[in-house]
Description:
There is one protein chain. The strands form three sheets. Strands 6-7-8-5-9 form a five-stranded parallel sheet, with helices on both faces. It has a two-stranded antiparallel ribbon with strand order 1-2. The radius of gyration is 28 Å and the shape is elongated. Helices cover 49% and strands 14% of the residues. The chain is built from eleven helices and nine strands.
Amino acid sequence: MLDVIQGLMETHEEPSDYVGEDGLLYCGKCHTPKQTRLPFNPLTGDKVETVVRAVCQCQREADEEAERRAVRERFQMDMARRREDGLSCPDGLRYTFAQDDRQQPKVSDACQRYVECWDEMRANNIGVLFYGSVGTGKSFLASCIGNGLLDRQVPVAATNFPRLLNLLQGTYEKQTLLDRLSIYKLLIVDDLGVERDSAYAEEQIFNIIDARSNSELPVIVTTNLTLEEMEHPTTMQYARIYDRVLAMCPIRLKLAGESRRKANASEREQLARKILLG
């Protein structure tokens, strides 16, 4: 303890530091005090004015940045460990808002506001449903939201319904697997409606949705289905599923336009022809 107090009384002086008019040492970089006066001696307890070490502004900022960096690194290590559970798709979070071409600016703005207002979204358990035809950017924008929240050190997982169905089918600990979904503050699940059509699939999809609903944590769902199809399903089980999804996702964003996958494939084909055929 005495060593700690002694350390507080010792000031590390840099060549650029200087003594101010008040007799205290100042930092030569930020020109703020590196010393302060106490009305007592920390070592003896005597009521004698004593000069002790203080943290200048640039050192305080450096310490704060080092702490933020350490927190980020701990978060990244924690997320890496969580991904070992197999729930997340390896490439599920590969896109960011920096890559957004903003072909639908209102939708892009809504997605960015979701990240900015995350605390409110989380507190009120508000999820997002992206719907529209194949290749219009639903998964892309869901990924952008996920990465935006990861930057804020919010635990996020991105997966899809076929992957979850395969995991559930391959384990006897189905409830344990479903419970693990709740370790993520935001869960992104792609491709509602593309799962194989069977009573087993319907039951497991409902269990996934029900588990997330019970956790009272937001979910982002993407689907090629229309709202009309979700509001008028063909089976009672899917009626339960879609009703729950719509209740969990009051923000519904329609992605329209031509398939970007087809456009990208066409561009790659032209590039390939140019490289190979000249």
